[in-house]
Amino acid sequence: MPIQFHQGDILHARWDGGPISVYVDDASKGLPYLCHSLSTFGPSWISGETVILWMDFHSWRKTGAVEDYYQRRFVEAFGDCFVPIDVEGSAAKTFAMFRYKAPLGTEAWTWLLKQSAEALVAARNEGSFVRMRKEIEGALSRIQKIPKSGSWRIAAGRCADVPARIFAKLRSSKG
User: Fold this and answer.
1) pLDDT tens digits for range 142-175
2) Which residue among 14, 60, 87, 156 is least packed, with the fewest CB closer than 10 Å?
3) Helix or strand (DSSP H, E) at 52
4) Positive or negative CA dihedral for 85, 86, 87, 93?
5) At what angle are helices 70-77 and 31-41 packed, to 10 degrees?
6) How many Å apart are CA 50 and CA 100, to the nearest integer?
7) Quick one: which of 4, 39, 40, 38 has its CA closest to 21?
């Protein structure tokens, strides 16, 4: 069977369901991409035969980004389905290869759904945090502008005059 290369946006990828002997993936960084690639191509992997090569599998070491760690977490969670294939030299720092050993069961899809739900909550919380931080920064900016405004200077001047007038009246009434 000839090798077929498919390049494009992984989120729009489709597969005809034919068996996949070698799966090379350079696009499944981040949870939505991993979920889509696994649900699209995973059912066509052949137990004991398919070789999976995930590019940038180790990039989380450099970036520290959570989205760069999902492939590794998935393989760790379902290690009974993947057998590592040794990669030598500098390539070992970049990609990882596995033989697909056993079919992914419902636990794998449940795991992905749970990760997706947690990622959604984290994104919402981060979004709320970002919105709140912007609101606070906006309020601080407005507060810092207050003393520079003409109306503030007039009001502050009048407020400063009030105690002086009160003390002046008190002195004149005593005296």
Assistant:
1) 667 766 766 666 655 666 565 666 666 677 766 5
2) 14
3) strand 51-54
4) positive
5) 50
6) 5
7) 4
